[in-house]
């Protein structure tokens, strides 16, 4: 089928694109920069896949008319694009909620509306309780601007689920080669100590980007009830301390997690916000982000995805982290 995709130049998109082509699908990708996205064609060719299976469509989520034309003839939509760092809730909403709404409406304007897979986040559902992985049936309670904006994007999809076949993917923390969002953890492990505002024993669900890509393609291909959400997660729920320990050992180091008092973490975050404001950028650390880091647990159950989609992760978190650490080191990222 012809899949319209956003976010193929991003981290997860770099794994989802070859998985789609490998499964025999063609991809029309919405890209801001065609020259930057051309590298994706070269990457497909390098692994023996047809580069002509990728069609580049210049544009962004800001124009409803352009999106309507771009979606013409597409069988499905994979909405990967999203904002993961911003200065305030309004900036998050502009992309994660309003941009999603425009893309949904463009899909509805098609003579034969395509199925729509929205890639959201565990953050949209909210943290879990220690020892109790979150289920899709639980009431959502996001605690950050990012999570709130992703939940608002989900609600935009659900409002149209009676007119459009909508499915929602909610991955937890995604990692793998090329990811910059989790790179700071690897840098901390290499340095030998990891300052953390929450409990070092906080339980985490993780998923490798290659496993997530397989899950997303399954969600595009399978018939599921409209409006259904799915957690895609790897096996196991390591603690933050265990994650740092495994990464450090893979790098030939020893590392210790140091819990930072909340008042001190708030001060650092406030300084980061001021510095980012002066530079006109999103802060690397914010007081809003601290709410996520200080949560009691971030775990989710993959049982629904296993039962209804036949999804099972193939990359164990220890081996995945070790391979990712090696990738970063080989390329001089750490």
Outline the low-pLDDT stretches.
none
- Structural class by sheet pairing and helices: alpha/beta
CATH topology assignment of the domain at 2-174 and 207-234 and 299-314: Rossmann fold
Number of strands: 13
Q: Nearest-angstrom radius of gyration?
A: 20 Å
User: How many helical stretches?
Assistant: 13
Level-2 CATH architecture of the domain at 2-174 and 207-234 and 299-314: 3-Layer(aba) Sandwich
Assigned CATH class of the domain at 2-174 and 207-234 and 299-314: Alpha Beta
CATH superfamily of the domain at 2-174 and 207-234 and 299-314: NAD(P)-binding Rossmann-like Domain
Q: What is the beta-strand fraction?
A: 15-25%
Overall helicity = 40-55%
Gross morphology is globular
Termini separation: 40 Å
Arithmetic mean of pLDDT: 93
**SSE string, helix = H, strand = E?**
EHEHEHEHEHHEEHEEEHEHEHHEHH
Largest sheet: 7 strands, parallel
Spatial ordering of strands, largest sheet: 3-2-1-4-5-6-11
